[in-house]
Design goal:
mainly alpha, 59% helix, globular
Amino acid sequence: MQDILSFAQKNNVQLLGTGNCQFCGAICSKGVFECIENYTNLLDFLEQQSLREHFTRFMSIDAHALQHSEIHGRWSNHFHLTRLFLVLENNVVWDYKKSPQLSNHLKEYKIKHSNEKLQVPSLFDRGNINSTILCEINQKEGTFTTIRNWAESVFEAWKSNRDIIQYISEGFLKKLKYEK
């Protein structure tokens, strides 16, 4: 598995270790590395909470990955945006077994669409919530609402890809119904 440094290099991006996050604009002193550390702390916090909606973790993973797409693989954008579409637009209750099913569906999709790339929103225009704001909710109520708002704002930022993602989602939902 490649790490963020490998993906950044592959995408001709130099990761900055000082100042605010170069992707989402989070107020940091150690750049993207602190942003990722803050997000990891949020995941730890979510693991400790008993949230009504267990798929909050998935929405947060998708939102963070899409805000920092240059440090993930190209098809990662398809996966995370499709999962957000399925949860936010189709009200799919996500669980761990659906992730490999979506991944397999995308493997099949890639065969016919190998050159497809999603349009990546401009830096700092990938949603209006970032790790700085998310760190503040660790001690407050409203975690689910804030994460859902974050996911929705990131999803909105990627709206130029809606037709592609809707097509992938429809195929996945048909396959999911067939497998049940």
